[in-house]
């Protein structure tokens, strides 16, 4: 009987330890990794407090969608399909994520965006300078 009581107390203590060790200090930051290849889906802005998004005009008709590939090495590859032959042009830069900010640098040009949504299927960012919202899907 004494053995059962000790085992019960140990099991109860372990259960309390496991449930009390969650990390709530991410300040609203998502825990989904940002690395991955995202297809350009929509662009827009906020009008009268509401998001207005349209299909991204940069995507050439009849071609694959343009993309953003964020790699583990912090390389950012921007793929652009254009022309009647849907020729692919890739531009490489770097990216840095700091909490819910994403900064992409290509050459000496940088843009910083708020990460509005990051899930396994979507990356939605809002440019801090222009306010333009860009939605990418996986």
TrEMBL record:
<dbReference type="InterPro" id="IPR024311">
    <property type="entry name" value="Lipocalin-like"/>
</dbReference>
<feature type="domain" description="Lipocalin-like">
    <location>
        <begin position="34"/>
        <end position="125"/>
    </location>
</feature>
<protein>
    <submittedName>
        <fullName>Lipocalin family protein</fullName>
    </submittedName>
</protein>
<keyword id="KW-0732">Signal</keyword>
<dbReference type="Pfam" id="PF13648">
    <property type="entry name" value="Lipocalin_4"/>
</dbReference>
<feature type="signal peptide">
    <location>
        <begin position="1"/>
        <end position="22"/>
    </location>
</feature>
């Amino acid at each position: 009987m004494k053995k059962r009581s000790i085992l019960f107390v140990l099991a109860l203590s372990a259960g309390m330890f496991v449930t009390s060790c969650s990390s709530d200090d991410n300040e609203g930051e998502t825990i989904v990794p940002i690395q991955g290849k995202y297809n350009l889906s929509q662009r827009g802005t906020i009008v009268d407090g509401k998001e207005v998004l349209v299909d991204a005009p940069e995507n050439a008709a009849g071609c694959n969608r343009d993309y953003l590939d964020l790699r583990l090495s912090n390389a950012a590859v921007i793929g652009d399909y254009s022309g009647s032959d849907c020729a692919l042009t890739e531009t490489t830069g770097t990216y840095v994520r700091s909490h819910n900010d994403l900064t992409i640098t290509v050459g000496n040009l940088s843009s910083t965006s708020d990460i509005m949504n990051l899930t396994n299927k979507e990356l939605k960012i809002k440019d801090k300078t222009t306010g333009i919202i860009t939605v990418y899907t996986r």
